[in-house]
Amino acid sequence: MTVRPTPLSSALLLAIAAPAIAHAEADAADPQRATELDGVDVHGERVRAQSSKFTAPLLDTPKSVSVISQQVIEQTAATTLLDALRTVPGITFGAGEGGNPTGDRPFIRGFDSASDIYVDGIRDAGSQTREVFAIEQIDVVKGPSSAYSGRGSAGGTISLVSKTPKLENFVAGTLAAGTDSYYRGTLDANQVIGDGIAARVNIMKHEADVAGRDEVNSSRWGIAPSLAFGLNGPTQAVISHYHMETDDLPDAGGFPYNNPFTSGPNLALNGDGSPIVTNRDAFYGLVDRDFQKTKADITTLNLSHDFGGIVLRNITRYGDTSNDYLWTQPDDSKGNPNLFGTVWRRTNARATQTDSFVNQTSVTGELETGPLRHSFNAGVEYSSEKTVRGTYAIADVRRPNGQTTAGTNNPLTGNQSCPTTGAATGYNCTDLTNPNPHDPWSATHTVTRSDPARDVRQTTRTKSAYVFDTISFSEQWMLNLGARFDDYNTHQFNPTAAANVQHLRNDTSFWNGQAGLVFKPMENGSIYVSWGTSSTPVGVDGGDGADGISATIQDLKPQRSRNIELGTKWDLFDARLSLTGAIFQTEMSNARVTSDAGTTQNAGTKKVKGAELGFSGTIMEGWQVFGGYTYLDAVVEDNGFALVNGVYVPSPFNGNAFPNTAKHSASLWTTWAPSFVPGLSLGAGANYVDKVYGNVNNTKWVPSYTRWDAMVGYAFSERYSLQLNVQNLTNKTYFTKAYASHYAAIAPGRSATLAFNFKF
């Protein structure tokens, strides 16, 4: 494997690594360095992964883990999960449609991780667009992780850590305004109300348009109260609730690709496969029709008791989430942009509700067996997810010849062909260069929620048991072991299928493991080699995602992935700066592909060879950094067979790159607080993402980009401060998501926000 970093990533890494290397030897010799340190000191608060399944400090955990601290979230003015994940290289984002929901869809090391998002270690089921107002930090675990998290997690997992009550009184918040009608307010209040009893509440209200996309807007509000008992004793109880609602006019559709034709006389009109951008501000949606509304209500009860070093914990969670939308995709399936300079306004609709119940009981502690020291975590878990999925129907319209056609078709042609635009087309056709999002579409069309009796219903239940143990042989050698067993069952009922009765079912069980050997040449450093696996069963999305169950795959075994990784971690400058590096290979050896008999089988192979570097913490007084670089050589080695001229032949896509995967990516966020101007802080950020393909054919793609951000803050006192953030400083036109067929999602333009922060 040959790694060729980009000039940007090389410069960033050298700039960060040079002073660290120069001081590494001196810091490594510090006798005060404690082996219990599990993170990096950031303004006096040590950053650490929160999962109890990590039975060793991060320094000694043989796995790649990135921790996005609350400080980084606040400094970058991130408001959503995807905003925050942008600071971690190696993560790209996938687009949604109708069957594949619009919401958070991160790809970690090339694998879809939409179903691998957790809150406080519990799977967060249901497609959503997640906020960060009630989040303390975000932990990103990279590489196959089913031993830790259960089904899926071929690329890794993302865990959001909630804000919970503390034994101190404070009130903190932010009032912010900015360009593009940006208004945001947050409140974080904590109050001690008795002996070991405290309450905390987080509140958020957000309104904003999208820079460079005049009609697009977002509106949301949320509240997250929590109450804790026994915070000063061995028995603790925390009950919390999270509520958030959104009401957006979405911009999921973006721009069509320039190569719609796969055969025929119009092939010469095809472009190179990149998006068409004749007018960067063009919006092909309809203001009087498009919408996306989501709601989440999640209640958690966390009970624990410390038996003198052995902690027994039980977590119970009930969640109810919904995701309803109807939005416009600028479809290119008929080649309208190339042939006529027009766009067909295809609709994508979805109405889903997911109810989930999870109960997890675990025990954590330490013990000695002769000369060996053990740090362990073991537990059992039961989860149930029930998803109901419907859609929105558009009434048929009458054509000029008296016949009827689908309400989204062009009445003049009876299909999706758009030689002209305007009222005669039912406003289903619009101009490529100068679309009118205020066309009065709703005046002649009717939209209704589909009949709930015909909704698709899916229930997924899992019973699991797991155990983890870090065995210390000496001060220099330790072995990390972990195993998990999952009994998995998913059942889908589809009343709209043939004969109005389709029951799909997959029942399976699987083991997954994790092993890592750690060598510590110094107290502040480690070198490790690790191995881990994951299992992705049929219907892993629980009925609300991109990896659903179907008649052709319901009897297949889980896809299996394994990862081999060699890495090193160092805590420098008295544990204020963390440096990490790793090389790895992840292989999915039985991916679902078409066989030479035309059936779907577990016969494909996908392989990712990669390397990554990371840094987080303080280089010197007043200078902080966070970021890294990731290289991914992701190849579809065996994509099965394809039907060519009536004969199944080896897939022509064998050897192609993974879709939604950047070969090179790098990020840097850095702040500087000059000592000669007390209270002033300056921040700058850069994100580089290489070319990304939207499909396994490698014919649809979005170009590489570098985005720059900036921040200026001033603290008037310990209580009050101002912070100015400028996002996309150069107003770069770039794309954040590449859908497999029809469109790419464009990023916002330049925007600025000014926030007044307070804390008492």
From TrEMBL:
<keyword id="KW-0998">Cell outer membrane</keyword>
<keyword id="KW-0408">Iron</keyword>
<keyword id="KW-0813">Transport</keyword>
<dbReference type="InterPro" id="IPR012910">
    <property type="entry name" value="Plug_dom"/>
</dbReference>
<feature type="signal peptide">
    <location>
        <begin position="1"/>
        <end position="24"/>
    </location>
</feature>
<keyword id="KW-0410">Iron transport</keyword>
<dbReference type="InterPro" id="IPR010917">
    <property type="entry name" value="TonB_rcpt_CS"/>
</dbReference>
<keyword id="KW-0732">Signal</keyword>
<feature type="short sequence motif" description="TonB C-terminal box">
    <location>
        <begin position="743"/>
        <end position="760"/>
    </location>
</feature>
<dbReference type="InterPro" id="IPR036942">
    <property type="entry name" value="Beta-barrel_TonB_sf"/>
</dbReference>
<dbReference type="InterPro" id="IPR010105">
    <property type="entry name" value="TonB_sidphr_rcpt"/>
</dbReference>
<keyword id="KW-0472">Membrane</keyword>
<dbReference type="InterPro" id="IPR039426">
    <property type="entry name" value="TonB-dep_rcpt-like"/>
</dbReference>
<keyword id="KW-0406">Ion transport</keyword>
<dbReference type="InterPro" id="IPR000531">
    <property type="entry name" value="Beta-barrel_TonB"/>
</dbReference>
<keyword id="KW-0675">Receptor</keyword>
<dbReference type="InterPro" id="IPR037066">
    <property type="entry name" value="Plug_dom_sf"/>
</dbReference>
<dbReference type="Pfam" id="PF00593">
    <property type="entry name" value="TonB_dep_Rec_b-barrel"/>
</dbReference>
<keyword id="KW-0812">Transmembrane</keyword>
<keyword id="KW-1134">Transmembrane beta strand</keyword>
<comment type="similarity">
    <text>Belongs to the TonB-dependent receptor family.</text>
</comment>
<dbReference type="Pfam" id="PF07715">
    <property type="entry name" value="Plug"/>
</dbReference>
<keyword id="KW-0798">TonB box</keyword>
<feature type="domain" description="TonB-dependent receptor plug">
    <location>
        <begin position="58"/>
        <end position="157"/>
    </location>
</feature>
<feature type="region of interest" description="Disordered">
    <location>
        <begin position="434"/>
        <end position="458"/>
    </location>
</feature>
<protein>
    <submittedName>
        <fullName>TonB-dependent siderophore receptor</fullName>
    </submittedName>
</protein>
<feature type="domain" description="TonB-dependent receptor-like beta-barrel">
    <location>
        <begin position="251"/>
        <end position="729"/>
    </location>
</feature>
